[in-house]
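Meet the record:
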Amino acid sequence: METFETLVRAEFAPKNTYLNTASTGLLPARAVAAMRTAVESVAAGQPSDMFADVEAARASFARLVGVPGRRVAAGASVAVYTGLIAASLPPGAEVLTAEADFSSTVNPFHIRGDLKVRAVPLERLADSVRPGTALVAVSAAQSADGRVADLPAIREAARAHGARTYVDVSQAAGWLPLDADAYDYVSCVAFKWLVCPRGVSFLVVPEDLGGLNPVFAGWIAGEAPWDSCYGPVEELAHSARRFDESPSLFSYAGARHSLELVEQLGVKNVHAHDLALAERFLAGLRELGHAPVPAPGSAIVSVPGLGHRQPGLSEAGVEVSDRAGNLRAAFHLYNTPADVDRLLDVLSG
């Protein structure tokens, strides 16, 4: 019988202490093999059906976040999907965001130029929704320091004031159990905690498609894509597929297998595994006299003032991030207690 550990060890064999999933997740062996096969099929002049891989990845992501596949669009970038949502808002609409949230989550609202974008501290987001707020946009977990948003409180405050919600789960999907059905729009890049290749992203929209105008729709967004290649698309897909970007097919060839692995492991199991490692690191930091950014319940731990240690840690074979002067460590399914101890050992000198 396959266990969590045996599944993981069959797929991952990093040659260093890799604690940088918040930047890029490691690829499982099954995804690497599938991408190699796809590339070789094109080199041989017999391309495999990678559009089937897109549909399998879409369905797998939908199961992971608890929505029907028809509500999921497949693309390559969160910024593009944020831009799609921004384009749907009327002039003068107020968008409420968290201070210093990830640029892809907020910048397209600023680029519009005719929206009222208001930023408040993450902890005050729910309390700051007011009459006239059209949209609340926030990352489920903050990229810079791992703080987890109080999504239920934000959702209830938005509903009470008639505002829509937009949640970027790029730093959460894969380790944090999520219910995308609770929000209007949910976006995600998959190359981090979902251990997919770069070039894969998803957008969850409401059943009624959320009033979005498919401004970048091409042939792939047609109800019958291969009949929509020339001239205006006569019939857009009846599902969220009308918001698909033309897919990076080699990436999706691998992504379907990465997502399959996350499903096999179970997000609840990954959540427990990742948080246990984060708690081990937090305990070690306290012993060393360091105070991390408070981020309870997060798989990301950020330590102020230690970002300058990143190059030396890398030289010692320990990969973490330097974010705004903070050392950011991210603990995921392929990490072990020995990885945590190695990081603490190097930090202690």
The CA atoms of residues 83 and 108 lie 5 Å apart.
